[in-house]
Every structure is written in C-alpha cells, then in structure tokens.
C-alpha cells in the first residue's frame, strides 16, 4: 500500500492509483474539506463592488457574502459560521458570545478596533488584519489633497467653467494665490508603513520631513528629522496624521494643539476620523487660525449632514477613499485569502490577538 498526500491534513491510500483516480480522490477530499468550513463576509461591497473576484476564498468553504450587515443582523447571518470576514461591521464581546461556532475573524482592513480582540482571544477566536496593503494609495491621497490646496485646483477649474477666464483680458487668470510645496516643512505624526511612504514622496518633492515617532534617528531615513509633537506642530507647514487611534491619540488635533500651529498650516487626515476634534478644526478654519485642511476620514461615516467640517472654510473632504484604489483592494483580497489559507493549514499569520 502506498500513502498519497493529496491535501494538507487529508491522505488517501491506494495500490497503484491511476492519475485520473488520484485526481478524482484529490478533488473529492478538497471538496469535503471545503464543505467543512462556513465562511461569511458581513460587508463585502466596500472591498469588492464587483470588480474583483472572491474565488480564492470561495474555494475554502461554504461561502456567503453580504454587501452590508447591520448590527442587528450579525448573529442571524453568522450563527453557523466558523470564519467571519468584516471590514467595518463591529463584533463586540456581546455579539461574539452569540456565535458559538466562530473560530476566526478576518478584518478586511489594517485597523481592527471594530473587534473586541480581548473577548475574541478569551473565546479562542483568532483575529487577523491586513497590514501594509494600501500604503502607496493612502500616501497618494495625502498629496492629492496637498497639491489641490497648494495650487487651488478645484477653484481654478470651476472659474474656467463659470466663464471667469474667458472674460479675463489676460492669458492667465489667478483666482487665488498658489504656492510651491518644495522647501516647506511637512510634519508626519506616526511613522509606520504609510507615514514612511509619505516621507519618501515628500522628500522627492523637495520638502523638509519632520516626524513624531518612537523610532530612533538611526532607524529613520537620513532625510527625516525626528522631533517632539510640540516642535512638529509649531514648525510644520503641513501636518499629516498616520498614527493609530488609541485613547492617547483620540482628539489629538484639538483647540490646544491647533493653537501651536502656524496660521499658514495645512492639516491632512487620511488616518482615523476621531484623531481630530472636528468642531475645533472647523472653528480654526472658519476663524482663519490655520490655512486649510484635507480630510478623507470623519468621526462618523457616513457623516451627519451637520458635521461642522462639511461647511468649514478651506476644508476639502473625500469620502474615505484613500485606501480604495483598485490595486490596493486587489492586494487586500490576496492577503485576506492567504490569511485564511494559512489559518486553515495551522500557522496563522497577521494575528493581532496572540
């Protein structure tokens, strides 16, 4: 008798199996293994509105994907699942208690504060995230906002469409002053994957890079100067947020810290909405205490219509899309698929609640 290993964790024995028989045996075992796992995606639309394939994950279990799931629907939809994937649908300790079959939570994002990771750990549930999939995309949005503000792109485009340039006597029409970013100081709060990518691009633009980080000078590129938060706020022309959301960093940008900034300062937030006290930032913009802000994230998403930043002076808002380029979402899908595969094979990667 020979022993044929046809897939991890399963073996078949046979006397001189033909290739066709071995192939069929392999397919049968894979199908048996697939059916033994129930995989539920609670909010798949944000990651995949239809331009990506779920095939890699589908092959690993009985697969169900929902575009969106309300908190009240989580338990009924995931009651039998041993694997649940979520982007922004929260999984609290109370919810986890009602999901007795659950053994794995795959967060389809880098931040995982939507999951009570300690409660999951106590119940023997592995929680993984997706690191470093969107660094280039988010950094790109930082500079999309910065360049829009520096060259006042939106306003100048609108003045052309409204006929102001056509009515002008000169070959050039300047609606408002514009400026170069070369030679300006950019202060990066948080120097992980995204922060370091922003630094690289800023350096290429000829900017002076300051960073508030726990890393030592010899751990940073030679073009980055580590400084205290107070120094960064006081000396930066551009302040961009890339730190995680914690109790310490919540409302990091507030009336006091804004008071340390230059009147010409620009604040950019592509990190987490609650890093900013939105009323304080709106007041500073409306009163001309800082120049402008570029924001891709808000404290509540979708926002309330009375969010103070929506109508604030010189505040440019994009709807949480910095992460969502096709390339970044494609990378996210591949990492999520590999995370599940590695978990099923017994060596979990990217686990955040070890």
SSE arrangement:
Blueprint: E1 2-7, E2 10-14, H1 19-35, E3 38-41, H2 55-58, E4 62-65, H3 74-78, E5 83-86, H4 93-97, E6 104-107, H5 117-122, E7 126-128, H6 135-151, H7 153-161, E8 185-189, H8 193-204, E9 208-212, E10 224-226, H9 229-235, E11 238-241, H10 255-258, E12 266-269, H11 278-286, E13 292-295, E14 315-317, H12 326-344
Parallel strand pairs: 3-4, 3-5, 5-6, 6-7, 8-9, 8-11, 9-10, 11-12, 12-13, 13-14
Antiparallel strand pairs: 1-2
Helix pairs in contact: 6-8
* Sheet having the most strands: 7 strands, parallel
Per DSSP, the total helix count is 12
Give the CATH H-level superfamily of the largest domain.
NAD(P)-binding Rossmann-like Domain
Q: Please count the beta strands (DSSP E, at least 2 residues each).
A: 14
What's the assembly state of these chains?
Answer: single chain
Which sequence of SSEs, written as H and E, runs from N to C? EEHEHEHEHEHEHHEHEEHEHEHEEH
Strand content: 15-25%
- Kindly name the structural category: alpha/beta
Ends: how far apart? 42 Å
Return the CATH topology of the largest domain. Answer: Rossmann fold
- Provide the residue-averaged pLDDT: 93
Give the low-pLDDT segments.
Answer: 1-9
CATH class of the largest domain: Alpha Beta
Overall spatial form: elongated
InterPro entries: D-iso_2-hydroxyacid_DH_PdxB, D-isomer_2_OHA_DH_cat_dom, D-isomer_DH_CS, D-isomer_DH_NAD-bd, NAD(P)-bd_dom_sf
Pfam families: 2-Hacid_dh (PF00389), 2-Hacid_dh_C (PF02826)
Keywords: NAD, Oxidoreductase
Protein name: Glycerate dehydrogenase
